[in-house]
Amino acid sequence: MSETSRAEADDAAVIGRSRQEPEAFAEVFRRYAPDIKRYVTRRLGPEAAEDVAAETFLAAFRQRGGYDLSRRNARPWLYGIATNLMGRHVRTEVRQLRILERTGTDPVTASFAERSDERLSAEASGPTLAGALAALPNGHRDALLLVVWGDLSYPEAAQALGVRVGTVRSRINRARRNLRRDLGGVNPMAIVREETTHE
Amino acid sequence: MNEMTRLERFRSEVPLPGPADLRTEESRLLDAMAHAATVRPVRGAGRTRRARRLRFGLVAGLAAAALTAGVAGVALHQKPAAPPVIHAENAAAARILTRAADNVSEAPELHPRPDQFLVFTSQTMNTVDSVEQGGRASHYLSRGKRTIWLPARGDATHGVIEEEVLKPHAYPGRPIPPEAYENIGRHGPEKAVDEDNTADYLRTDYAHLSRLPTDPAKMYEHLYIQLGTGPLADARAWDYVGGMLVEAYMPAAQRAALFRAAAMIHGVTVVRSATDAAGRRGIAVASTWKGLRTEYIFTPETYQFLGLRTVVVGPTRVKAPVGSVLTSTAQLSVSVADHAPKVKRR
Fold this sequence. Notes:
The structure holds two protein chains of two kinds.
Chain A: H1 5-8, H2 11-18, H3 26-44, H4 46-62, H5 75-86, H6 90-103, H7 116-123, H8 126-135, H9 138-148, H10 154-161, H11 165-184
Chain B: H1 3-9, H2 23-38, H3 63-68, E1 86-87, H4 90-102, E2 117-131, E3 137-151, E4 160-170, E5 185-191, H5 206-209, H6 216-223, H7 231-245, H8 252-262, E6 269-275, E7 281-289, E8 292-298, E9 305-312, E10 325-337
Antiparallel strand pairs in B: 1-6, 2-3, 2-10, 3-4, 4-5, 6-7, 7-8, 8-9, 9-10
Helix pairs in contact in B: 4-8, 6-8
Protein name (chain B): CU044_5270 family protein
Keywords (chain B): Membrane, Transmembrane, Transmembrane helix
Organism (chain B): Actinoallomurus bryophytorum
């Protein structure tokens, strides 16, 4: 949300224009499609991501008439739509996390094998982390991943999920506590501190 | 390393997609945008349209016509250089056809009486092969806008057609033959066909179509009547689906069954971006037979049928570059009328 501040300053203007000129909506796609697709791919894998990413922008396009033009940054809106659509795939997401937990092999990233260096570095705690993520309540996982992978601030995540900021804050605190607990058992070298989250 | 850092790294090997990785998503959005820009005014009637034989020696074609034609043409205005992406999985095609089935009631339903006519307007492009005086074949792409009145019950000999023949398009590398210009302008109203020898079980008049099964499995059986099995049977069943969509109209229940049955046809694929004869972009389901792909195009938003086209995708008897569009139809409207116009004497 920071490095794109120049571009996102006028998302609302672009969306407003697209109500008269539908083609203008292509700019919204250009700005956010890569991030959205990567985010969805990380959660669901490449196959479902193609559909969810496409549906996200189709839905956004159809809903552009209802977009609140006082919100100049469209990022939370788009992540909210994507999160909503991903809700239909929650079983797939959890199942894939469980496979990784059980087998040590991540079906979601299998097709990105050429980047094995990065994968190796991530792998050590992968299975445990996957199990911990799978065990989270859906709403907690959504909030956590919107912030960590989606780069949304707490207020933006609240906007995306249609809940109050306080709710996001408490969901993320509890999610982090659970992850810490689960990871702590695996990696004794990890520095675990009780810390209060603040935004 | 705390849990947030670990989470940040988790699956971080998933790359940020580039434009090429977003082509599918982009084309679906572009389709929706193009549709919003150009098609909204047509809303209202269900649409259908079927290519039939015209009087002045044109081959007006479904894929079947293209299959047997000795010739090919290319729609220059449709970027033949960029053949659309095909996804080989049937599941995606089934999804589109299922949505089409789910959405049949989006368009208001027509209830023609047996004595009424269904009126279809459409824009078409067809490959024409004609033989010149010296016996040499010449080829071009005939284009037109047409309105056809077909009886709700009975064969097409009572049908009436009016057509505006538009300027022909060239087959690349070939001159447009002089006869291609002979018919430009308005024709009709005239008799749609002189005779109609369609087998009973293949009839596509409303009275016949509204008696077809509403159960998808039974509709599937109907599609394969007298066809047997195998790739040729699949191709013919697919063509028959087109025959029931183009210049034909059936009740919503049968139409939904037809889409679900079509999804069961072996080898059906998805074309993410296809353009009909009126330039409207949509998403298509397709079946390929001997290098020719027959696509049924739907609006990307509401999955209403837009039209069809036939595209060269491999080696075929007709010698045309991959990506050539051989036939193309845009169904613009369907309505009901009490009478067909009086036929002019010729």
